[in-house]
């Protein structure tokens, strides 16, 4: 199993500032957003020995073409030198904050990273582009492990929200219990590799797959992850890392997971960092609360 991105450096729990400086921080050092309400309790998953899905069949890697009108929370997260695609995705949480995978930003400075929103074709200059002012990795994160593969990016100036640029919701306990259930389905989107081996940088794609938070189908994996089935010939792959695993409920779209890692050949079960397990941390850093 491999992470869906390029090789990165080991930096542990770090905070990157707008000047590109790197600071090692502890949980106590991290800034806490002011709030008058108590934070919700983060739920924890326990992976059982039972499989949630049946056996795999021979399949290919590709999804259907979609658009940011359908997935307005989808953003591209790349170094400035990789704007045409093939790096990572992310999820817009507000006009200023983006959720992505830690391995997408480890070893990168704020001055080098760019976030693009409201764009379908990464080879064009349409949509909105912002640089990063802060990059925050979850405390205890190490690139030598697949655990805690989650990070936040604050952009240098707010995105203009509209029909093609709109945040996804963070799942509270009710949404989590309804959506993150064995056998339920969720949608992955991104500009990652297709069945031909090339990147789908000219068109945003998506695929809906069955998921399980507790099944053993993905084998040994970190806690607070979701296993996604390689279903109907479709899966996430290199370049999709950091992007959303999302599902709708009562008129809202919730980001349940962050694309983390899977088989090198992208023909098997994928693993997604489970967002509900980190909602307290996200709220502390951004002030954005679960819904």
The CATH architecture of the largest domain would be: Beta Barrel
Number of helices: 3
What is the average of the pLDDT values?
Answer: 77
Amount of helix: under 10%
Content of β-strand: 25-35%
What count of domains describes the coordinates? 2
Query: Based on helices, strands and strand pairing, what is the structural class?
Result: mainly beta
Could you give the count of β-strands?
16
Rg, Å, rounded = 17 Å
Adjacency order of strands in the biggest sheet: 11-12-13-16-15-14
Q: What are its keywords?
A:
Thrombin, subunit H; mainly beta; 3 helices; 291 residues; 2 domains; 29% strand
Q: Summary?
A:
The protein has 291 residues and is mainly β. The chain contains three helices and 16 strands. It folds into two domains: 138 residues, Trypsin-like serine proteases (Thrombin, subunit H), CATH 2.40.10.10; 109 residues, Trypsin-like serine proteases (Thrombin, subunit H).
List the helices and strands and how they pair.
Blueprint: E1 2-3, E2 14-16, E3 22-24, E4 64-65, E5 74-79, E6 88-92, E7 97-100, H1 102-105, E8 113-117, E9 128-137, E10 151-155, H2 173-179, E11 185-190, E12 205-212, E13 225-228, E14 244-249, E15 252-262, E16 270-274, H3 279-286
What does this structure look like?
This protein folds into two domains: 2-35 and 72-167 and 279-286, Beta Barrel (Thrombin, subunit H); 168-276, Trypsin-like serine proteases (Thrombin, subunit H), CATH 2.40.10. It has 291 residues and is mostly beta strands. The strands form two sheets. The chain has a six-stranded antiparallel barrel with strand order 11-12-13-16-15-14. It has a six-stranded antiparallel barrel with strand order 5-6-7-10-9-8. Residues 4-41, 44-61 and 233-239 have low confidence and may be disordered. It contains three helices and 16 strands. The longest helix is centred in the last third of the chain and has 8 residues, at 279-286. The chain is globular. It has helices at 102-105, 173-179, 279-286; strands at residues 2-3, 14-16, 22-24, 64-65, 74-79, 88-92, 97-100, 113-117, 128-137, 151-155, 185-190, 205-212, 225-228, 244-249, 252-262, 270-274.
């Amino acid at each position: 199993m491999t992470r869906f991105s390029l090789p990165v450096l080991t930096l542990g729990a770090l905070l990157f500032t707008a000047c590109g400086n790197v600071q090692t921080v502890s949980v106590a050092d991290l800034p806490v957003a002011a709030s008058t309400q108590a934070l919700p309790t983060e739920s924890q998953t326990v992976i059982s020995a039972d499989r949630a899905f049946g056996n795999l069949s021979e399949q290919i890697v590709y999804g259907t073409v979609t658009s940011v009108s359908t997935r307005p929370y989808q953003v591209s997260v790349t170094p400035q030198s990789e704007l045409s695609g093939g790096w990572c995705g992310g999820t817009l949480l507000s006009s200023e904050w983006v959720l992505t995978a830690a391995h997408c930003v480890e070893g990168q400075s704020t001055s080098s990273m760019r976030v693009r929103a409201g764009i379908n074709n990464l080879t064009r200059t349409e949509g909105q582009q912002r640089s990063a002012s802060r990059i925050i990795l979850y405390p205890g994160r190490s690139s030598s492990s697949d655990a805690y593969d989650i990070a936040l990016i604050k952009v240098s100036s707010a995105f203009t929200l509209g029909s093609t640029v709109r945040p996804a919701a963070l799942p509270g306990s009710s949404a989590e219990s309804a959506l993150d259930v064995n056998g339920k389905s969720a949608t992955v989107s991104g500009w990652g590799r297709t069945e031909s081996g090339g990147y789908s940088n000219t068109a945003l794609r998506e695929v809906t797959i069955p998921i399980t938070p507790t099944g053993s189908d993905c084998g040994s994996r970190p806690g607070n992850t979701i296993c996604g089935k390689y279903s109907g010939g479709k899966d996430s792959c290199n370049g999709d890392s950091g992007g959303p695993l999302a599902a709708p409920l009562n008129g809202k779209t919730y980001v349940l997971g962050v694309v983390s890692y899977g088989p090198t050949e992208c023909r098997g079960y994928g693993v997604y960092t489970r967002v509900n397990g980190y909602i307290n941390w996200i709220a502390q850093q951004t002030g954005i609360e679960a819904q």
